[in-house]
TrEMBL record:
PANTHER family the UniProt entry points to: ALPHA-N-ACETYLGLUCOSAMINIDASE (PTHR12872)
InterPro entries (UniProt xref): Hex-like_dom2 (IPR029018), NAGLU (IPR007781), NAGLU_C (IPR024732), NAGLU_N (IPR024240), NAGLU_tim-barrel (IPR024733)
Annotated source species: Candidatus Cryptobacteroides excrementipullorum
Domain Alpha-N-acetylglucosaminidase tim-barrel span(s) in chain numbering: 120-453
Key words of the record: Hydrolase
Protein name as it appears in the record: Alpha-N-acetylglucosaminidase
Gene3D superfamilies: Chitobiase/beta-hexosaminidase domain 2-like, Glycosidases, N-acetyl-b-d-glucoasminidase
GO molecular function: hydrolase activity
GO biological process, one term: carbohydrate metabolic process
Domain Alpha-N-acetylglucosaminidase C-terminal: 461-719
Domain Alpha-N-acetylglucosaminidase N-terminal intervals: 27-105
């Protein structure tokens, strides 16, 4: 490790300690009062004089003492007690209850646990579109508490930046109409921020810009209060096209096409070597600091899934040097955080020579890389550990917020241990870059737990997970989770992870890459895990979620074989077979709809009502709802991203996914009756029209919500288990 790098780490650790030390007790106590208000007075929070992150637990009479070197470590200690002594889950969702025992268990022997890394990163640009666009402060407050409880120290904090940009672009002479039209609709802002698209479903309403700025002030204040270092954005080169009219001599280029969007939605890139670049960077960082403060670490990603204007190594080095130089000129303490996704996504252009040039042009220790998708590809092993720049090992785990059981549990464990063993002194931290929250929350809790020297084996960790979901030591639930983590959670998540039920209908395959139904586990193991869960008598909310979630996955998985049997009957001209399997396919949708209706985690109404909640008038409410519906279904202005963010949610299942497959079944059946070929192309045109119409708020969506999760699951389980036999 270089001397500079050591100094930077020391400065970061000390400044973080000082920033929260005086308010540690009150900050963590306030967290406890929010999460477990009836029990908060039973906890005593005390400081540990330690320069590294650690916590201690012990009983003092009837009370529980939680010690930590800072507020973040104290929060982790509190959560460790809740998880492993109270068998309690604190979810990242506000709507999930925190279910506590009637009396607090004692800590029989003093516990002391140290962190294995000082930094724990969380979030992804995309999470702000696939999960968070409609959140208000109440939802953010719970989530920030969840991050603190799980030891996150570096959360991505990009909410509200449009208010900053609005002031910057006004200063440079653009009109209000030009600026707000440059922005996309709310749910698509992450891809605008990453220089992928402009203008889509804009202009962005002024009330949204203002309200998000107010929300960001609360977010960063609470994150800092809980000992975190929010990662705010910096200027990476993305500018409104109209800026060229004001600065005709500035070096600007149109970026490459992205996501199937038409030419009118392409972004414009200002060369970092142009003198205007540093001016805009200074204006942006000064205005952002005025509005939101700064912790001197900035996210900037100039080439996410788009081409650099040049692939010459010297030019790439010059660009990264000037990007960092513009940051440090505006803030001498600046550090740059960069996604490593671009190196994975475009290995043709990002050769080792180009990566080395790009990274090496920034002073060592001032560019922190996120190794974005380590459960699949570890870039640190391909780049000589990022050519000495600090990097964070990240688990991605979910694309698009898809509701798919995915995550290679044991592989993740092995790779994290390998990184700690051989990742080098510039391994800066551990974290996650999930695109959406999805249905696999436990995987993120597991990854963040691996940042601490708990002494717990994976088998013990899984048993504790089962216990807190069941609320007791239930052998059936423990065995179910053993089956799940050993035999179901075996594959990394991929783009388009989704059951075929969510796919645009077709006779074979999956029509488009955005819905890949491949799985690395057997249906027998999934069914066994579901059956074991149903043997429990628990009524814990986390357990009921598991019952619904595992059953939902099973139904989605068996749909593939039904579709294939339907297609075989069609090819054979077997009308009776087409009718039989068509009925079974639609029956799966009905059963899935009934099952997911039993848990609020699968309600489309939550998404839509939250979106409408940002509007003051019916027109505004309809605008937000259309934007919310669009992201989950057609996504953009062409079929290229259709269904990427698919969700097996009640309302979507019955009125969108089932409706498409019902039209498909009816058209295929009619083709068999008439002795002609099914016309997929003609059908696609019809379906595209339906898909677009569904995104309109005027298209009525009926929601089936409520029901007995265990009773419904047992009925459906018995039905399909019987058919299987």
């Amino acid at each position: 490790m270089s001397k500079l790098f050591k100094v930077l780490i020391t400065i970061a650790a000390v400044s973080g300690l000082v920033s929260c030390r005086t308010g540690d007790d009150s900050a963590v106590r306030a967290l406890a009062e929010r999460v477990i208000p009836e029990y908060a007075d039973m906890f005593i929070f005390e400081h540990l004089e330690d320069t590294s992150d650690c916590f201690e637990l012990e009983s003092r009479g009837r009370k529980i003492v939680v010690r930590g070197n800072d507020c973040n470590s104290m929060a982790v200690g509190l959560n460790w007690y809740l998880k492993n002594y109270c068998m309690t889950t604190v979810s990242w969702y506000l709507s999930d209850p925190v279910e506590m025992p009637s009396a607090l268990p004692s800590v029989k022997e003093k516990v002391r646990i140290k962190a294995r890394t000082q930094e724990r990163f969380f979030l992804n640009y995309c999470t702000f579109g696939y999960t968070m666009p409609w959140w208000k402060w109440e939802e953010w407050e719970r989530f920030i508490d969840w991050m603190a409880l799980n030891g996150v120290t570096m959360p991505l904090a990009i909410t509200g930046q449009e208010a900053v940009w609005q002031k910057v672009w006004q200063k440079h002479g653009l009109t209000d109409e030009q600026i707000r039209s440059y922005f996309t609709g709310p749910a698509h802002l992450p891809w605008h921020r990453m220089s992928n698209i402009d203008r889509w479903q804009g202009p962005l309403p002024q009330e949204w810009i203002d309200s998000q700025a107010d929300l960001q002030k609360k977010i960063v204040a609470r994150e800092r209060e809980l000992g975190m270092t929010p990662v705010l954005p910096a200027f990476a080169g993305h500018v409104p096209a109209e800026l060229k009219e004001i600065y005709p001599d500035a070096e600007m280029t149109r970026v490459s096409y992205w996501g199937g969007f038409a030419d009118g939605y392409r972004c414009t890139f200002l060369s970092p070597m142009d003198s205007l670049f540093a001016v805009i960077q200074k204006d942006f960082l000064e205005e952002q600091t005025r509005m939101f403060g700064t912790d001197h670490i900035y996210g900037a990603d100039p080439f996410n899934e788009i081409d650099s204007p040049s692939w010459d190594p010297e030019t790439l080095a010059s660009m990264s040097s000037h990007i960092y130089g513009s940051m440090s000129a505006a803030d001498p303490d600046a550090r740059w955080l960069q996604m490593g996704w671009l190196f994975y996504a475009d290995p043709v252009h990002w050769t080792q020579e180009n990566i080395s040039a790009f990274l090496g042009a920034v002073p060592e220790g001032r560019l922190i890389m996120l190794d974005y998708y380590c459960e699949f590809t570890e870039i640190w092993k391909q780049t000589g550990k990022f050519y000495r720049q600090p990097y964070i090992w990240c688990y991605l785990g979910n694309f698009g917020g898809n509701t798919m059981l995915a995550g290679n549990f044991h592989t993740v464990s092995t790779r994290i241990e390998d990184a700690f063993s051989d990742g080098g002194e510039n391994l800066y931290g551990l974290g996650s870059t999930l695109e959406g929250f999805g249905v696999n929350q436990f995987m993120y809790e597991y990854v963040l737990d691996k940042a601490w020297s708990t002494g717990m084996t994976d088998a013990e960790w899984v048993e504790k997970l089962a216990d807190r979901h069941a609320g007791c030591q239930d052998e059936n639930v423990r065995e179910a989770w053993k089956v799940l983590t050993d035999s179901v959670y075996v594959d990394y998540s991929v783009t388009g992870n989704a059951s075929l039920t969510c796919a645009h209908p077709c006779m074979e395959g999956n029509w488009l890459w955005t819905t890949r139904h491949d799985r690395g586990y057997s249906l027998e193991n999934l069914l066994r895990a579901w059956g074991l869960l149903l043997e429990s008598g628990s009524d814990r909310d986390a357990y009921l979620f598991d019952v619904v979630n595992v059953g939902r996955q099973y139904l989605g998985d068996i749909f593939l074989s039904m579709r294939d049997s339907f297609a075989a009957a069609y090819r054979a001209g077997d009308l009776a077979g087409v009718e039989k399997y068509g009925e079974k396919m639609l029956g799966i949708f009905d059963d899935m709809e009934r099952l997911v209706a039993c848990h609020r985690s699968f309600y489309l109404s939550t998404w839509i009502e939250a979106a409408r909640g940002w509007g003051q008038t019916e027109e505004q409410k309809d605008y937000y709802e259309k934007n919310a519906r669009t992201l989950l279904t057609v996504w953009g202005d062409s079929p290229a991203l259709t269904d990427y963010a698919s969700r097996s949610w009640t309302g979507l299942i019955s009125t969108y996914y089932k409706a498409r497959w019902q039209m498909f079944i009816e058209d295929a059946m009619q083709a068999v009756k008439e002795g002609r070929l099914f016309d997929q192309k003609k059908f696609d045109e019809r379906i595209h029209e339906f898909e677009r119409s569904w995104t309109e708020p005027s298209y009525v969506v009926e929601f089936s919500e409520g029901g007995d999760a265990v009773g419904t699951a047992k009925e459906i389980y018995a039905k399909y288990n019987s058919e299987k036999r």
